[in-house]
Amino acid sequence: MRFRMFPKLTTALPGDAPEGPYLALEKIHGAQLVVGLDARGGGRVGKRKAWLDAEDPFFGWQMLRAELGMAARAIREILRRDG
Description:
Structural class: alpha+beta
């Protein structure tokens, strides 16, 4: 499965940004995790720049691997069903 790097998020607003209030929908600092599924249902877990190997240290991602995989497959089925 090919990996496409997730671009780095900026941490500053432009100088002409209007005053808040703002609602943060994604944290800007910290780990970014991606779950990818191939056409046969196989999955991979990655970080912003690459896929992770099973032994790679990355904030204990292995503890979430099974749950994230099930959630990703459920989302894929919903998208297939509902188009």
